[in-house]
Amino acid sequence: MAREFYSVEQVAERLGLHVRTVRNYVRDGRLKATRIGRRYRIAREDLDAFIGRPAQPPAVSPLRAEVSTVVRIEEVDPETMSRISTLLMTASNTSQRDGRLHLTTHYDEERSAMRIVALGDPKTSADLLALLDAFFTADRA
Questions:
Q1: Are residues 78 and 108 in the same domain?
Q2: pTM score, two decimals?
Q3: H helix runs in 29-101, sequence order
């Protein structure tokens, strides 16, 4: 967004004041201005503040939420771990939107345990957990 600047003459004309009066306001510090060479430039925001016009609210960026999920699976053999890992990695790579999902898997052979760490937006994380739930539901049937 480009900032809009006015000269002392333009401000005087807008406010119906003498140019000398506007310069005095600037020199006294009552009206904020930037000196460029031998001339003053007054930003629109500073002029609005001076005359008491409410400042425009800054543009609001959309809210973003991130979910951190850790799933631990006990007593899983290496073959099942590989199937789960491949399933999740494939699903995360094909459904990933705007790089909003980070997925890591780790297998501890000594404990026969698998850990899945997912960081992403709520919808993608929920989809990933639903897929994992479907895997275990289908595996039990």
A1: yes
A2: 0.53
A3: 44-51, 78-95
* Average pLDDT of the segment spanning 87-114: 81
Q: Are 71 and 105 in contact (CB under 8 A)?
A: no
Q: Alpha helix (H) ranges present in 1-141?
A: 8-15, 19-28, 44-51, 78-95, 122-140
If you search the block for the tokens 């929920």, which residue do you land on? 126
pLDDT for the residue numbered 2: 64
The DSSP 8-state label assigned to residue 56 in this structure reads P
Query: What is the span of the domain harbouring residue 128?
Result: 67-140
Instruction: Tell me: do 71 and 43 sit in the same domain.
Output: no
| More confident: 96 or 89 | 89
Q: What are phi and psi of 64, to 5 degrees?
A: -125, 140
**Can you read off the two tokens belonging to residue 61?**
């960026």
